[in-house]
């Protein structure tokens, strides 16, 4: 196991524990820029990494907090899982006919990082106490989506399925924002638990698909897990001591710059 990979996993774990931002938006660019992995390998490895690390979080949310809305998870999955599988088959077809896929993955990664940066800033606004109190007063029955809520949720899942499979980014920050908009009366804790529960099958299926295409480095995966698990624990302890209003804008700015580099490369 490489000390550099373990250290990177630890660093990303700490940042995930402190900020709650998904590891994909941090880990995948790190693997591409710092260690020089091909985008497809970085994406495939990170997807399985995300599926494993998120499992513990869902167990806590479901078992201890009862904060997973499984109805919303199922509705999102109706869109995300089939589109994730279809995206894998598209990648496989493009590779079989000799098309260049790295450019598509790199561009998708850049777009996903830019959207994630925006989502971090939007979430920090939506989850302020005064805004949450206003959200609680919204009546869904006479509100924004009415009968379109389920189709909108399935469509959102489909978009997440494609984006996450191509870039490994979006299952966390973008999924959370989507749920906040679609289900404005859902508590913040339940939004996080529901997003985590949806992310596990999505990242697992997408990761397995990339594995079948040879895009997973298991030695790298093991090193990242060794570093990230204690990192997430430490980050969770530090999270209460570091002002979120300072850390989130800095993180969003970094992701925005990295995203633009991918898009403009």
> What is the count of helical runs?
11
Share of helix among residues? over 70%
- Taking pLDDT < 50 over at least 5 consecutive residues as the criterion, the unreliable ranges are 129-143
**What does the overall shape look like?**
globular
Overall mean pLDDT stands at 82
Tell me the domain tally. Answer: 1
**SS elements, strand count:** 0
- Based on CA atoms alone, the radius of gyration comes out at 18 Å
Secondary structural class: mainly alpha
Elements, N to C (H/E): HHHHHHHHHHH
Give the gist of this structure.
The protein is mainly alpha-helical and 265 residues long. It has helices spanning 3-19, 24-33, 39-63, 70-96, 102-126, 129-136, 149-167, 173-182, 188-212, 218-238, 244-264.
Q: Please, could you describe this protein's structure?
A:
With 265 residues, the chain is mainly α. The chain has one domain (3-264). It has 11 helices and no strands. α2 (24-33) runs antiparallel to α3 (39-63) and α3 (39-63) crosses α10.
Question: Can you lay out the helices and strands and say which pair or pack?
Answer:
Blueprint: H1 3-19, H2 24-33, H3 39-63, H4 70-96, H5 102-126, H6 129-136, H7 149-167, H8 173-182, H9 188-212, H10 218-238, H11 244-264
């Amino acid at each position: 196991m490489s000390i550099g990979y373990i250290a990177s996993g630890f660093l990303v774990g700490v940042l995930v524990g402190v900020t709650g931002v998904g590891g994909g938006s941090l880990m995948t660019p790190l693997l591409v820029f710092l260690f020089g992995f091909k985008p497809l390998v970085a994406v495939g490895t990170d997807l399985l990494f995300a599926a494993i690390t998120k499992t513990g979080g869902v167990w806590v949310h479901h078992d201890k907090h009862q904060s997973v809305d499984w109805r919303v998870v199922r509705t999102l999955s109706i869109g995300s899982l089939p589109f994730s599988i279809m995206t894998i088959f598209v990648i496989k077809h493009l590779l079989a006919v000799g098309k260049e896929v790295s450019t598509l993955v790199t561009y998708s990664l850049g777009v996903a990082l830019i959207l994630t940066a925006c989502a971090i800033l939007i979430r920090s606004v939506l989850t302020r106490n005064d805004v949450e109190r206003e959200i609680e007063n919204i009546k869904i029955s006479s509100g924004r989506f009415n009968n379109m809520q389920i189709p909108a949720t399935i469509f959102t899942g489909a978009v997440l399925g494609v984006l996450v499979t191509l870039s490994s980014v979006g299952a966390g920050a973008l999924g959370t924002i989507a749920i906040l908009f679609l289900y404005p009366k859902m508590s913040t804790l339940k939004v996080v638990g529901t997003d985590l529960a949806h992310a596990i099958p999505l990242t697992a299926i997408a990761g397995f698909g990339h594995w079948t295409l040879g895009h997973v480095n298991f030695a790298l995966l093991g090193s990242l897990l060794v570093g990230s698990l204690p990192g997430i624990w430490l980050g969770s302890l530090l999270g209460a001591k570091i002002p979120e209003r300072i850390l989130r804008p800095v993180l969003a700015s970094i992701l925005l710059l990295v995203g633009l580099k991918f898009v403009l490369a």
